[in-house]
Amino acid sequence: MEFVFDCHQYSRKTKVKLIVFEFIDLVVIWWDQLVTSRRRNGKEVINTWEEIKTIMKKRFVPKHYYREVYNRLQSLSQGSKSIDKYFKKMKITIYD
Fold first, then answer.
1. Which percentage of the chain shows pLDDT scores above 70?
2. Residue 70 sits in which domain range?
3. pLDDT at 37 over 90
4. 9, 43, 45, 92: which one has the fewest Cβ atoms less than 10 Å from its Cβ?
5. Confidence of residue 42 (pLDDT cuts 50, 70, 90)
6. Total domain count, the chain
7. 49: closest CA among 24, 17, 85?
């Protein structure tokens, strides 16, 4: 969605509509329940892409996800070298 928004000058309201239009399956049900619940409880309408991203991260991204990705990145390797050592060697080669 970020790429689409970068290419067009959509209003905040249009961005939200485009995002919701892309939802499928259980996300549609979750979204409908969220909007209904917020309306019933007198909470503000979600009207920006940033708000949707924040709410969706809380709902769909497990708390351990970032730690898991970090650990996977730390264990990457290129041949027999760790990515960190490989990257340092590339920098030295590029700047020599």
1. 99
2. 2-95
3. yes
4. 9
5. very high
6. 1
7. 17
Run of H or E including 81: strand 81-82
Is the torsion defined by CA of 49, 55, 25, 36 positive or negative?
negative
Residue 12 near residue 18 (C-beta atoms within 8 A): no
The secondary structure element, H or E, covering residue 96 is none
Q: Using CA atoms in the order 5, 10, 16, 17, what is the torsion angle rounded to 10 degrees?
A: -110
Residue type present at position 39:
R
What pLDDT, on the 0 to 100 scale, is given for residue 58? Answer: 92
Tokens of 43: 């909470």
Question: Distance (Å, rounded) from C-alpha 23 to C-alpha 2?
Answer: 15
The residues near 73 (Cβ < 8 Å, ≥ 6 apart) are 83
- Residue 81's φ and ψ, nearest 5 degrees, are -100, 145
pTM metric for this prediction: 0.61
| Count of CB atoms situated within 10 Å of the CB of 15 | 19
